């Protein structure tokens, strides 16, 4: 196992640069700053940080950058002092990070590294591109890895575990945690990078491509500003048994992703800067399946044969971005001589999702071909750009559009090329082009056209690249799906559903009643009886309000047809305020009955943005076929399904709810009112049998509850759970004698907490409620006061907190630390007769005090001392008297520190934290006056709060209300992440 001397950091250092050799006198050492890939390790040369020619406040190793500029640019080699002009520009970018923000500085630096910036160094002062890195001949670059890389910005100094430098530019930072206790995980490393380093020493990240966090078991990486929950694994070389050998998994990931050519490939071809909905610049970096599939597409085009390939990547795992990365790399590849890339989408609304992804990411040379003539014209003129068009432009006529060989078409949702032989028509129109089909659902063998157009016989199972839902869920790219059958007595006969479905195929357009066949019409009557609709709507509201809304999620209702949409809306308006629900559907010109819901594309997008906004009263969206594909709203958790769907259509529809959102969203839920899932295998009939495992009955979670509960209670054999106050807590904590046992308990409790939040409310929980409440309180009482171990020691779910606070007597757990430490007689008594229970009680009280000051550097050291003190006592280094003495000494220091930190100072730190937070979200579009916002929040919170408000439900509710009011005033209420952060600061400091 790892120890302090044999750390994860040392292991990675050796892996990347080869084991250190002890240099004996007569060995010829490699020249220090030699360039080219090293023959040891995976190509990096190891240089001790003390030997790198830089000061602690320098981000760039300027002498190495200068050497590279001279080596790679003939114009600079001719006049070496020109290198200083370039360095002057690079230094300016590093300095700009404090004014322009990290993302913009990083974007500008990346443009320089990719030779997109020029200087007047040519003949007659002509501008020529400057090369900092050679992407064509990789052995022209210098690759260095170093350990404990110290960087100082003003008074802030941070030391990165490992840094990878190319030509003197720090491109990758690796935070390797040594798991001294099992609670420490990659999450702690990632938090350090994201919350601490990027905030306090942003200069260090101006050249950053990505950062890595690992504790030897899991390997995760993320780009600048990426929330921790979105940091992804790199399982490219995974052969299945990496899961059994954690170290092997780390080795495979690091050896695959951290090779010099991969790091530079990600920098050049798999990094995007885009503007998000909040008008902020963000940086996007590929997930490994996008990297692999895009490179396979490029390799196939370079090889020239076969001229097709089928890519199945599960719904929600990032196909739009995969197309952007592939298009970008194909266009820039020197050997492809500027090809034409066609992005083919299959219907109008996907057009916006993909086009949005491309335009948001500022991809240059983009054309839209919205008619077949425009498409023919662009291809005939040999336009070498990225052209976006829809599949239907190929169905509009027959014959050849263009027979060039360097046209590459990427076709989204390829399985729909079934309809009307579109796949064949496309191949006829572009006889020599490369056709790549992407799909989020697997392709069946009987989909002849799709295989004819895209499937290459050479590929295993017909797929060039496959990323199934098992991988997607394992990597955390998407969530598991559960279905919950409701109102069984209203379920409709199986045979009727199947027959109706067959008649409704083509059921993707909003069908009208007169097109319905007889069977479907009969079914429509059954489904739309007023009594049935009333009961379904009542059930939806009851289910939504008790299960979905408490955790802040929203719902989508899928009805039989457009008329049903109106009927549901009328019924829901009797049960909820009218603004809580809305309908989205296609409306044609001559349909007065639906006119109220006719919207332009912009109006519809605005409505959907309201739906995505957690603070908007719009909670339920009613549809029949719109928004069942390509609609992305991570806040959507529950789909209420009352329409016969099958196979592709069903799989695509239910995947609307599988997007990750927040820690509380552990799965997507489909509430089934028709009985579609009574036979999952029949509802999802694919050649790839694994698909039936995509969705499972929520009953499975309920079945797992008793065992999860037992595993938690097993830690406390013989403890009387009816004892309240400190007595009860002490007895419980004595069953968790050290960090290892505590962490094991936390792992089991985390699992139980997830199950509880997913099932609650449910009558089955009644019998477990008391035990669960007790376990939750024990879990909270043993959380590390230093805030380490975030993966398993986290905040509780909304329903659990509600339960704990239900009937709390605030005085059950008294806080009399002050009197205890200051009363000399009492102290004398305690020390002369050391009672282990008393020591435990004091320890609990000190820990509680320290938790109140999480985030205050003055108390952080005290928290860490308490952790260390407890460890020494538990491992037998200290006897109980000594432990008690040191504990009381620590308690005194905590009280002293509290005295020296007047509440005002805590509140000033609160104001400072809030100021920093709002400065981050300020954009040209929201030119808020930060001081004013902070002063407003500060004032209203002081008015509303009362002592101990953090421990009561009413207090939390009032403060949240006050905060929302303040944010609303400045139009900042739509940003949920901002609200959560601001609230956590208020909770901590006020």
Topology:
Layout: H1 8-17, E1 45-46, H2 62-72, H3 74-78, H4 82-95, H5 97-100, H6 102-113, E2 118-119, E3 128-129, E4 143-153, E5 156-166, E6 169-176, H7 186-200, E7 210-214, E8 219-222, H8 246-257, H9 260-269, E9 271-275, E10 281-285, H10 288-303, E11 308-313, H11 319-332, E12 340-345, H12 348-360, E13 366-368, H13 372-380, E14 386-390, H14 392-395, E15 407-411, H15 422-429, E16 434-439, H16 448-454, E17 465-467, H17 469-474, E18 480-485, H18 494-504, H19 518-527, H20 530-548, E19 554-558, H21 562-575, E20 581-583, H22 601-612, E21 620-623, E22 636-641, H23 647-654, E23 667-672, H24 680-683, E24 695-697, H25 699-713, H26 725-734, H27 739-759, H28 769-781, H29 798-805, H30 817-822, H31 824-832, H32 836-851, H33 857-874, H34 880-900, H35 903-921, H36 930-944, H37 953-969, H38 976-989
Parallel strand pairs: 1-4, 6-7, 11-16, 11-17, 12-14, 12-15, 13-14, 15-16, 18-23, 18-24, 19-21, 19-22, 20-21, 22-23
Antiparallel strand pairs: 2-3, 4-5, 5-6, 7-8, 9-10
Helix pairs in contact: 10-11, 15-16, 18-19, 20-21, 25-27, 26-32, 32-33, 32-34, 33-34, 35-36, 35-38, 36-37
Give keywords.
single chain; 990 residues; alpha/beta; 7-stranded parallel beta sheet; 38 helices; 45% helix; globular
Short description:
Helix content is 45%, strand content 12%.
């Amino acid at each position: 196992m790892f120890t302090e001397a044999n750390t994860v950091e040392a292991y990675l250092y050796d892996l990347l640069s080869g084991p250190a050799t002890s240099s004996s006198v007569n060995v010829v050492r490699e020249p220090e700053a030699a360039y080219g890939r090293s023959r040891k390790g995976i190509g990096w040369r190891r240089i001790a940080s003390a030997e790198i020619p830089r000061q602690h406040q320098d981000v760039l190793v300027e002498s190495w950058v200068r050497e590279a500029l001279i080596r790679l640019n003939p114009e600079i080699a001719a006049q070496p002092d020109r290198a200083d002009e370039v360095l002057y520009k690079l230094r300016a970018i590093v300095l700009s990070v404090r004014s322009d923000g990290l993302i913009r500085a990083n974007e500008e630096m990346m443009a320089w590294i990719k030779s997109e910036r020029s200087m007047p160094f040519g003949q007659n002062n002509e501008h020529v591109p400057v090369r900092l890195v050679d992407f064509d001949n990789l052995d022209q670059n210098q690759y260095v890895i170093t350990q404990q890389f110290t960087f100082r910005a003003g008074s802030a100094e941070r030391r990165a575990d490992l840094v990878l430098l190319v030509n003197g530019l720090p491109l990758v930072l690796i935070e390797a945690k040594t798991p001294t206790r099992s609670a420490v995980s990659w999450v702690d490393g990632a938090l350090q990078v994201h919350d601490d380093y990027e905030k306090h020493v942003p200069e260090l990240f101006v050249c950053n491509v990505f950062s890595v966090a690992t504790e030897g078991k899991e390997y995760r990486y993320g780009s600048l500003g990426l929330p921790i929950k979105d940091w992804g694994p790199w399982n490219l070389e995974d052969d299945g048994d990496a899961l059994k050998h954690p170290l092997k998994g780390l080795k495979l990931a690091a050896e695959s992703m951290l090779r010099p050519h991969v790091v530079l490939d990600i920098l050049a071809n798999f990094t995007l800067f885009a503007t998000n909905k909040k008008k902020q610049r963000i940086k996007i970096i590929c997930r490994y399946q996008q990297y692999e599939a895009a490179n396979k597409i490029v390799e196939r085009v370079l090889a020239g044969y076969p001229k097709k390939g089928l890519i199945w990547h599960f719904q929600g795992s990032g196909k739009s971005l995969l197309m952007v990365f592939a298009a970008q790399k194909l266009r820039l590849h020197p050997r492809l001589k500027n090809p034409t890339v066609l992005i083919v989408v299959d219907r109008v609304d996907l057009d916006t999702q993909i086009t949005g992804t491309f335009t948001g990411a500022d991809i240059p040379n983009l054309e839209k071909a919205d008619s077949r003539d425009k498409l023919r014209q662009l291809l005939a003129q040999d336009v070498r750009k990225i052209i976006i068009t829809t599949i239907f432009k190929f169905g509009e006529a027959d014959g050849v559009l263009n027979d060039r060989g360097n046209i590459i078409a990427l076709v989204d949702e390829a399985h729909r090329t079934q309809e009307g032989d579109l796949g064949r028509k496309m191949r006829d129109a572009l006889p020599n082009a490369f056709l790549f089909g992407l799909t989020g659902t697997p392709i069946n063998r009987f989909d002849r056209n799709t295989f004819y157009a895209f499937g290459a016989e050479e590929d295993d199972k017909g797929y060039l690249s496959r990323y199934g839902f098992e991988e997607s869920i394992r990597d955390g790219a998407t969530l598991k799906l559960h279905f919950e059958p409701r109102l069984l007595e209203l379920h409709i006969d199986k045979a009727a559903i199947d027959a109706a479905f067959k008649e409704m195929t083509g059921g993707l357009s909003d069908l009208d009643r007169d097109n319905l066949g007889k069977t479907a019409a009969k079914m429509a009557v059954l489904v739309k009886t007023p009594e049935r609709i009333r009961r379904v709507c009542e059930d939806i509201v009851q289910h939504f309000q008790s299960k979905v809304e408490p955790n802040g999620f929203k719902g989508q209702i899928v009805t039989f047809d457009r008329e049903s949409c109106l009927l549901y809306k009328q019924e829901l308006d009797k049960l909820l305020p009218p603004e809580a629900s809305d309908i989205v559907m296609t409306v044609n010109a001559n349909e007065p009955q639906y006119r109220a819901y006719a919207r332009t594309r912009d109006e519809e997008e605005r409505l959907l943005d309201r739906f995505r906004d957690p603070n908007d009263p719009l909670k339920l969206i009613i549809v029949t076929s719109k928004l069942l594909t390509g609609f992305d709203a991570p806040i959507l958790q529950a789909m209420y399904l009352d329409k016969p769907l099958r196979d592709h259509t069903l799989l695509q529809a239910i995947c609307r709810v599988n997007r990750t959102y927040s820690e509380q969203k552990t799965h997507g839920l489909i509430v089934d009112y028709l009985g579609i899932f009574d036979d999952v295998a029949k509802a999802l009939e694919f050649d790839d049998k694994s698909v039936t495992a995509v969705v499972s009955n929520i009953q499975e979670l309920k079945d797992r509850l008793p065992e999860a509960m037992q595993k938690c209670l097993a830690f406390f054999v013989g403890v009387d759970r009816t004892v309240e106050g400190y007595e009860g807590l002490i007895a419980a904590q004595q069953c968790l004698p050290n960090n290892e046992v505590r962490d094991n308990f936390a792992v089991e409790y985390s699992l139980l907490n997830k199950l509880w939040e997913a099932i609650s409310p449910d009558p089955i929980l009644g019998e477990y409620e008391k035990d669960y409440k007790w376990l939750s309180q024990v879990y909270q009482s043993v959380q590390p006061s230093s805030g380490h171990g975030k993966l398993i020691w986290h905040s509780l779910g909304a329903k659990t907190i509600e339960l704990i606070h239900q009937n709390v007597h605030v005085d059950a757990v008294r806080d009399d630390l002050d009197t205890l430490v200051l009363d000399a007689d009492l102290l004398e008594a305690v020390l002369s007769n050391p009672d282990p229970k008393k020591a435990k009680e004091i320890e609990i009280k000190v820990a509680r005090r320290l938790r109140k000051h999480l985030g205050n550097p003055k108390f952080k050291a005290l928290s860490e001392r308490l952790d260390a003190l407890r460890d020494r006592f538990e491992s037998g280094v200290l006897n109980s008297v000594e432990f008690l003495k040191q504990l009381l000494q620590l308690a005194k220091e905590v009280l002293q520190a509290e005295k020296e930190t007047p509440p005002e100072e805590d509140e000033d730190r609160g104001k400072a934290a809030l100021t920093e937070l709002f400065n981050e979200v300020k954009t040209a579009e929201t030119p808020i006056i930060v001081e004013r916002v902070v002063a407003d929040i500060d004032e209203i919170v002081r008015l509303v709060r009362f002592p101990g408000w953090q421990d009561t439900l009413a207090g939390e509710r009032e403060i949240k209300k006050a905060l929302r009011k303040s944010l609303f005033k400045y139009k900042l209420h739509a940003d949920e992440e901002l609200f959560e952060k601001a609230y956590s600061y208020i909770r901590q400091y006020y």
